[in-house]
Specification:
- It is a single chain.
- With 107 residues, this protein is mainly alpha-helical.
- 85% of the residues lie in helices and 0% in strands.
- Helix 2 runs antiparallel to helix 3.
- The protein is rod-shaped.
Amino acid sequence: MRHYFSMMPSIIPLYNYRRRQNLALRHLLVSRIFVHVSVPLLVRVAASTLTECFATNLANVRLFSSVYQLMLSKTRVFGHLKLFALIRIRAKYVLLKNAQNLPTESM
């Protein structure tokens, strides 16, 4: 009887082989789903984020430029164009420009 069982092929290696095959197939399926679903999604999210950042920066450039022009025009309209006020306005604009990387304007 002992000899009979020793001659039978063991079922454990076969089970392990099938299990490894199933795990490999499952991993392949999951990785393909990940590539086909999440990569285009990530590309879309990155593109929309970059577009939004660019639009926000462009809006900030226009806003701060118009604020700077408005501050200059107010000081000129009311006749209080003092050198100190002009320097203060220019310093505020330069600080905003450095914070937002705005293009500098010649005065």
